[in-house]
Specification:
- The chain is an alpha+beta fold.
- The protein has 2 domains: about 100 residues, Herpes Virus-1; about 100 residues, Pleckstrin-homology domain (PH domain)/Phosphotyrosine-binding domain (PTB) (PH-domain like), CATH 2.30.29.30.
- About 20% of the residues lie in helices and about 25% in strands.
- A 7-stranded antiparallel sheet has the order 8-7-6-5-11-10-9. Strands 1-2 form a two-stranded antiparallel sheet. A two-stranded antiparallel ribbon has the order 3-4.
- About 30% of the residues are buried.
- The C terminus is likely disordered.
- It comes from Steatornis caripensis.
- One of its GO terms (biological process) is cytoskeleton organization.
- Keywords: Cytoplasm, Cytoskeleton, Guanine-nucleotide releasing factor, Metal-binding, Phosphoprotein, Repeat, Zinc, Zinc-finger.
- InterPro entries: FGD1-4_PH2, FYVE_RhoGEF_PH, PH-like_dom_sf, PH_domain, Znf_FYVE, Znf_FYVE-rel, Znf_FYVE_PHD, Znf_RING/FYVE/PHD.
Length: about 240
């Protein structure tokens, strides 16, 4: 009974996870798994396994593609074989979730028992229902370098800025609580569109890629900083 319950839980979790990803990647519907070839998620859109969330590296944790769903996964999470109808029912490398769905076999090792932490929200998932998302650069204290990444203010968590290394990563590498911060505009110099979040000596400096994007981010962060949690369109409709 425990095995049946785990299988049902995994299937429901997988059905929820398989959806149309952002930035142009279309995931297969659950019932289409194995029937036709998936569109692979591009390697450069992720920096970590899309199943276990462990970061990739060049030596010990390399990228692989699940031949059923197209996700980018590590060797451990793709150490399964299943027959795929679109490939003449040959055995192909698949991820654990697809293996369970396609074969009906239960994997006894439980990798889904961990509670999702505050950073364990997929970028594509939260970007699809965000107040604002897009590419920014968070500069270091010297203002010369820093972190380029995918930044998201989710609708269901609008007081926090999540920072991902890539737009389809399944885990944010850091977050910044926005409530109480002041948003400060900085003069444009050397074609750099800069602004800051400032609170009690803590300063974050961001660089947007256009002036229009800078203004949009400043407005969204300023709203979150004072606790406005509904989309901007709602406020326009109710002045």
């Amino acid at each position: 009974q425990d095995a049946i319950d785990r299988k049902e839980k995994r299937s429901e979790t997988f059905k929820t996870a398989v959806h149309e990803l952002e930035v142009g990647t279309h995931a297969l519907k659950t019932e289409e798994l194995g029937l036709r070839a998936p569109q692979w998620v591009r390697d450069n859109l992720v920096t970590m396994c899309m199943r276990c969330r462990e970061p990739f590296n060049a030596i010990m944790r390399r990228r692989h593609h699940c031949r059923a769903c197209g996700y980018v996964v590590c060797a451990r999470c793709s150490d399964y074989k299943a027959e795929l109808q679109y490939n003449g029912n040959r055995l192909n490398r698949v991820c654990q979730e697809c293996y369970v769905f396609l074969t009906g076999h239960v994997v006894l090792e439980d990798r889904e028992g961990k509670h999702k932490g505050i950073l364990e929200k997929g970028a594509a998932e939260v970007s699809g229902r965000s107040l604002l998302c897009g590419s920014l650069q968070l500069l270091d204290k010297n203002g010369k370098g820093g972190t380029r990444g995918w930044f998201v203010i989710p609708q269901d968590d609008p007081l926090v800025l999540y920072i991902y290394a890539a737009p389809q990563d399944v885990r944010a590498h850091t977050s910044i609580p926005l409530l109480g911060y002041q948003v400060r505009d900085l003069p444009q110099g050397d074609s750099r569109h800069l602004f800051q979040l400032v609170q009690s000596g803590q300063v974050y400096t961001f660089m947007a890629y256009t002036e229009e994007l800078k203004q949009r981010w400043m407005r969204a962060m300023a709203r979150s900083a004072v606790g406005i949690t509904h989309p901007e369109e709602d406020e326009d409709a109710h002045p």
